Amino acid sequence: MAHQREKSGKSSAEKVPKKASGPPEAKPKKTKAKSKSKKGGSGRGMSKEERREQILLASRDVFAKIGYARATVDDIAGEVGVARGTFYLYFEDKRGALEELVDRFGAQIVAAIVTIITNDPKKSVADQVVENIRGILGVCLEERAMTKILLTDAVGADPEFQRKLTMFYDGVVQLLTESLRDGQALGVVAEGEPRVFAYMSIGALKELLYQAVTLGLSGESADALTTQVYSFLRQGYLRVPD
Question: Residue 98, class by beta-carbon neighbours within 10 Å (0-12 exposed, 13-18 middle, 19+ buried)?
Answer without folding.
Answer: buried
